[in-house]
Each structure stands twice: as structure tokens, then as C-alpha cells.
């Protein structure tokens, strides 16, 4: 019998998506240039199936892959983002792929590459994309899927994607989790929704990753304050995170942070986190989000700060040198009573800053949608991030509800639930940022979120002076508060008594 779906790439993500599809009753044909990877997925399928027979067919060439699939062919690419995607597409063309066949890219591709690819492969095959979040466990037992592109392709793929996606209990908004091979979660709302035209799904996934960067950085800043100001051990901080994970900060990232902090190094017996070098890696998606926000003029400072925080962590050798040269404030450790206060302040700061990060991310998506003519459904996007993906959190249910109340919401901060939350917790947020600064601890993400909040709620910013400066040195003109909007003026700053020149 022919298979319904083919895979190119049986690496970590590919292998797990293949097994997830197989668990959901689909027959999968798979090909990987690296024969060991192919053998590994076949072996795992055999081990999980026992004597029930294989569900995955291994192929030794692109031609064989096509011959094993029912027409029109549906082929999923699970290869690294970038050149590899086009290499595989060309190989598929050489192997005889047809105009009505569908190729689905599931990598972390740059969204503009996806748009270009859809155009360049037109007439050769249908290039569709599905951004995937959730890491290897997500891929295996339920990822969050952000498909976009040709609507015909989506009707074909939809049942499969909804079957393999993570599921949410509609009554609680919480993930239904079961990590058992051969026993997939079939009930609940699937975290797979059509995002829009080509590129929009990868754009949304890019913003997801930007939020992921900021979420992670915020947790790391709270950790550093507890470590370096409160003098707490990794295990003690881990316990605080366990407590925090029980409230509004409940999230996958909080949970795994607690687990990382609780883990001991098998070699030294020390907390594992204490032997991990403080030099962060990155593959680019957070950077792309920050760049896009700068290009569109949609402020996402906390996401940008999270990227910069990784960059400055990368200057390890310079920092080690600078630490012996540059002075900080005199150390003032907290009394025990103040410690408890500071921990609570950090909790509240994290919560408020997190609201701002999502406000920035959703604002960016709204701006991009207007720019590119996408009809993004923000309640739907928040919904499919409730389970399966890296930023999954109870918090996403509140965001879903905010956009269900008002799908035109200009900024999440203006939703009555979130504005109330910040008004309740902001004093502690300010205290945490102020105390961290007084103690010399960098809290770029926590404080940039606070500045974002304060700027967004300020009716009159100092940009009036800035416009004066621009007009002074470059005759760049300004608008007047007391004249018609859009009319611009220039002053001869050496003779301001002379009448202003109306420029436009
Ligand atoms: C996800 C993750 C995933 C990947 C990150 C890691 O949603 O499943 O975001 O896509 O692990 O891109 O990114 P960095 O290596 O840049 O931290």
C-alpha cells in the first residue's frame, strides 16, 4: 500500500514527527541522506510496534520516496533552515515531483524565504509551510503548528496536522498531556490553525521565538538577582521557581528552569547550572524578531534586550577582564525579612514584564499583518500557543480571552484584565528593578519592559524636544500641537522671533 505522507529528514524533529503521524494512523515514507538516521527511525518504529508490523517505510532515494506515496504527493521537509530547503526542493524536481504535489517546510525558516520559495516553485509544485514549536518531545507527542500558504494544500494537510498537534482541554484552557508511544491524545482542541498566506505562519513562529527569548531572559534575570543579591543556592532558587509555577507564572519555561536548577552534575556533584558556562547560543529567530520590530517601527524592546543579553554573555573573556577593572556599587546584602519581600517583588516584576513582552509580540504581529495584508486571528494564535509550544503557559488562556473580548485590541496592555493586573502588581515591579539596579545587577529585560509600559502610558513624551533638535540641526521640521495635524513647520533657530515657515 502507498503511504499518505513522505518525509525528507529523519533528524530529531523529523523522526519524532514521523512517529507521531504513525501513532495517529498514518503510513509514512521517509528518506534521509544520512542512512543512520533513517535506520534509527525504522528501528524505533519496529521497537514500538512489536509484532504489529512497521508503519514507516524507509526509502533510499528521492525517486523511491515519490514512488511510495499516493498522488498528489505530500512531502514534509524536516531539514535545517536555509540552503538545505532549496537543495531538497531541487532534488525533488529532478526526481519528477508534479505541479499539484505539495511540499511542506517545517524548519525555522526566515519568513521572507518562505514567501520567495512559494513564488519560485510555482508551477513545479505547491510550496507550503508549517512552523513547528515544541522541541523533540513536542514533535513526538504534540507540537504547536503554525501552517500558512496555499489554502488548497491546507485542506489536504489539516486532518493530519490536527491529529498530531498538542491538545487543549476546552473547559480549562490547559494542555492535555500524555507522553505514551502508541497512545496519542485524540480529545481536546488541537494546537494547529491556519495562519494565513505564505510566510505568515513563519512570521508568527518567529515572533513566538522572540517572545521565547524574552521569557527566558526574564527568568534568568530573576535567577541572577536571587543568586547574586540574595545569595541563594541553585537548589533554593529552583524551589522558588517551583512555587511560582503554581500561580499566574505557570509555564513550561518556568517548570524546566526549576528542573535545571534542581539538577546535580554527575561528575562533580555540584548544581549542574553552576558548571554550565554563562555564554548563550542562538540560531537567529530572536534576532529576526528584533530586526523586524525595528523595521516596522513596532517597539519590542524587551525582545531586543533578550537578544542583546545573549550577545553580551558571548563576550565572556572581555567580561572576565572588565570584572577586575570596572567598579560596581558597594554590596549590600538583604536582611532575611527583606529577602522574602524581594522574592515577592521579583515574582510580580516577572509577571508584569511578561505581560509587556506579549503586548510587544502581539503588537508586532498586528503591525506586520497590516503591512503585508494578512488577516491574523490573534485569539486563534494565542489558542494554539496554549499547549505544545515552548512558551506554553496558563497565561495564554488570558490572552485568548482578551482577544475574544476584542479582536481589534490595539495593545494587550489596554485589555481590562491585563491593565488591572499591572496596576495591582506594578509597585513591586518598580521595586525589583530599582533594587536590582542599586545592587548592580543587569536586569535589561525587566527594566526595558517597565520603560515600555511607562512610555506607552505617557501622553506627552519628550519627543517634542527631540523634534526641536532635529529641526535645529537639519531643518527636519515638526508638527505643532495647536495647528492642523500633518502640517509641518521649520524655525530659523538663530532668529526664532521671525515667523515660522510652514513647510507642508
Ligand atoms: C521551539 C523552539 C525551537 C528552537 C529555538 C532555539 O519553538 O520549539 O523555539 O524552534 O529550539 O529556535 O532557538 P535558539 O537556538 O536561537 O535559542
TrEMBL record:
Under catalytic activity, the entry for this protein gives:
6-phospho-D-gluconate + NADP(+) = D-ribulose 5-phosphate + CO2 + NADPH
Upper lineage ranks? Bacteria, Pseudomonadati, Pseudomonadota, Gammaproteobacteria, Alteromonadales
Full protein name: 6-phosphogluconate dehydrogenase, decarboxylating
- The keyword Oxidoreductase is assigned to this record: yes
**Similarity comment: family membership:** Belongs to the 6-phosphogluconate dehydrogenase family.
Q: Which UniProt keywords apply?
A: Gluconate utilization, NADP, Oxidoreductase, Pentose shunt
Q: Which residues form the 6-phosphogluconate dehydrogenase C-terminal domain?
A: 201-494
Q: Does the keyword Nucleotide-binding apply?
A: no
Enumerate the InterPro entries for this protein: 6-PGluconate_DH-like_C_sf, 6PGD_dom2, 6PGDH_C, 6PGDH_Gnd/GntZ, 6PGDH_NADP-bd, 6PGdom_BS, NAD(P)-bd_dom_sf, Pgluconate_DH
Going by the record, the broad EC class of this enzyme is: oxidoreductase
Q: How does it assemble?
A: Homodimer.
Function, as annotated, reads: Catalyzes the oxidative decarboxylation of 6-phosphogluconate to ribulose 5-phosphate and CO(2), with concomitant reduction of NADP to NADPH.
| UniProt EC number | 1.1.1.44
Stored NCBIfam families: gnd, PRK09287.1
Q: In which pathway does it act?
A: Carbohydrate degradation; pentose phosphate pathway; D-ribulose 5-phosphate from D-glucose 6-phosphate (oxidative stage): step 3/3
Q: Which GO terms describe its molecular function?
A: phosphogluconate dehydrogenase (decarboxylating) activity
Superkingdom classification of source: Bacteria
What species was this sequence derived from? Answer: Alishewanella maricola
